Amino acid sequence: MNNQKLPSLKTFKTPTSGMKSPGSSKIQKTIVPPVLHEVGKLAAGVAAVNTGSATGNPRNKCALQPGHSLMDWIRLGSSGKDLTGVGNRAGRLTVTLKQLEEHDKENDAWLAIRGKVYNITYYLPFHPGGPEEIMKGAGKDATSLFDQIHPWVNYDQILNKCLIGKLVLNDSDLTIEDLFVSSNKPKTPTRDQQTPNSPLAKDSSDIQSNNNQVLKEVQTQEQQQQTNSVTQPPLPRFDWIQKMDSITTIFYTKSLSNPQIEINPPNQENIINIFMQFDGKHFVNELKFSKSIQWPCQTKINYETGKIELIFKKIESQIWENYGTLRQRYEEQPVMDLKLKYSVINKVQVNQNTCLLELERVDSTKLTVPLGKHIRIFGKVKGEEMSRSYTPVPNSLFSKYKPQVYTSDNICLMIKSYPNGNISRFICGKNKYDVVELSRPLGTFNLADLEHRELFLMLAGGTGLTPMLGLLSFLLERRVNLEHRELFLMLAGGTGLTPMLGLLSFLLERRVKKCQKVSLLFFNRTEEDILLRNQFDTLQKEDSRFQPAYILSQPSPKWKGFKGHITSEILQDAFANLIGDSCYTRKDVYVLVCGPTVFTNLAQSLLKELEVSDEQMYLFLG
Known about the structure:
It comes from Popillia japonica. By secondary structure, the chain is an alpha/beta fold. The chain has twelve helices and 30 strands.
């Protein structure tokens, strides 16, 4: 795209209706009676905590009607009124998925979160996000939806007066009597898989185990009123390999599973707990080494194949007879801390208003953030609790932007500080060794959507590029051409840079289905606002498949590059440059868009005018 001239652009006025300042809005204090202090404090997190998207744009809220404040909800719950609709059976019922689906109307709305079913009919007008948002979970298991929006909120305290009972699998044989939870039912066995030690291998320099036979043990857990046995997903396949000074444990998930990995440091018994999450499933791997190892380990994740390698240094350099033991199990919803403490270990100023920070877990636990996912930062500003979402970027940005051999378990953030941005100023004001609170990874991005794509167009504005950087290197490293859709277009506008940074490395690094081209349209106001320009220009010289273009809406007289805003003409030109004289068509291009809400909505509208289907685009909306 840099080799061809974009068509002349007519500057248009950006719509302002419905827009919000990038700063975090202030939270109003509420006086809560002592007896309800805990519930009120948690409910205030839903009603008052400032929210934002992965690009730094605040999420819209619904104005509550008079008589529907937080205190009104607390009073209603304490009035003795039956909010469940099931009378004295409340809390003792079991509900099948089929029965849950029948309660999806505003005058009869049930939802389930982590196995508990609540009647939210009375709560609808009290929900700070409006009835429409919470109704998205009505009549279904809303656990995933809840975790995407505000997983740190203690929903059980807020909805405890609405509790109907427990959620079970569909069972056509259930009777009315069966719907009552019985504590006298026999316990249901669950699978717990243990992998035994492997025999001593013959090659002492690089030793890999043979196929391990699997021993199965039957343990018991608390019965959750399931009359049918539950078919559990297959456990991640395990292997190991060692050298004189190190041992590598290997877990195989599946291609493009984009796993989230959390590794706890060894305890006194030399046991390391490894938590894996992918495809909405949670797996616990309890690894006990036969001898002592050093901490921390190094992590390598092949996002294309789903292979996970954990490399541990040995305390004593020697060949082990076996690695030890591994116990694996599947958990539907493991109990984990919702807020995590991180310490600032590195800070670099990128430009006049943007800084790059590297954060490390205080408790020495290692956590990897899946590609395209974001985290939330919590902070108290003038005594008020606030939070905002940001997308991690590759830590190679501290030196030279390039694919990484090892997967970073530190969290790196590139944050633009706004004059009225409470959280952005809060985090950019942190110094080395200061501690901040973060959420666990959030978001809905599905890496498998890129499997058969080979042409990519990126539309990025400001810091809206960051979700794409992790994919860029991955795509450029793909070695084999297969099938179609190998062109990618990234559109980033304003503060939409950050979600794309993580994706860029992935796209340029992809090996199985080689990426043909990745075009990045990076929209900013002034030349000083262009983040990482030198690194992008260097990357283009090293890999011609990557084509960045910088478009300014308020350029200086000296600016000789592209000018204006996103238009249909710009997009048509971008598609033409991507396709060139190849056999590809516009339908083979995959488009990623991130930026302020107005930019993203306009880009989506323009793309649809060009007959780009929903399956060809992904919008980072936070």
